Amino acid sequence: MEDVHEVPRKRIATAHLAQHIGKPVCFVGRVEKIHPTGKFLVLSDGEGKHTTVELSEPLDEEISGVLEVVGRVTNQATIMCMSYVQFREDKSPFDLELYNEALKIIHEFPEYFPFGTGRNN
Questions:
Q1: What is the DSSP letter of 76?
Q2: Which of 21, 23, 25, 76 is the most buried (most CB within 10 A)?
Q3: Do the Cβ atoms of 7 and 117 come closer than 8 Å?
Q4: Which letter does DSSP use for residue 88 in this model?
Q5: Model pTM?
Q6: Distance between CA atoms of 46 and 71, rounded to whole angstroms?
């Protein structure tokens, strides 16, 4: 299976998980809960819907706020995380609702956002 960092990946919200099972994705959400083992996170998207993210290793740092997760959607419609980036919100907060509106446009007009075409542009 190819590395999710080497292939195009769609930006999705919780509502898109079922259509992307087995595919590499990028998900942005706010940390709602961290499992005591540190191997699972619950993130909420711009509509307030929750997604479970599974980590290959337990967290070794404290995280909160908004994360961008790159991973692959599992058969259980969760995301197996390959990497994540924590957004800094100390100067300005990240607007998840506005991000969600951008996602709607990306998915409504795929001809202008050709993810997965294999082109390197």
A1: T
A2: 25
A3: no
A4: P
A5: 0.89
A6: 19
pLDDT at position 44 is 97
Q: Return the structure tokens found at 96.
A: 């998840």
Cα separation, 42 vs 115, whole angstroms? 26
The label of the residue with tokens 């898109």 reads 16
| The token pair that represents 62 in the structure block | 């404290």
- Which residues make beta-bridge pairs with 26? 11, 70
- Which is nearest to 55 in space by CA: 77, 81, 30? 81
20-29, 30-39, 54-63, 102-111, range with the lowest pLDDT: 102-111
Going by C-alpha positions, the residue among 40, 63, 54 that lies closest to residue 82 is 54
Residue 11 clears pLDDT 50, i.e. is over it: yes
Q: DSSP readout, 24-60?
A: EEEEEEEEEEE-TTSSEEEEE-TTS-EEEEE-SS---
> HSE on the CB side for 98, CA within 13 Å?
3
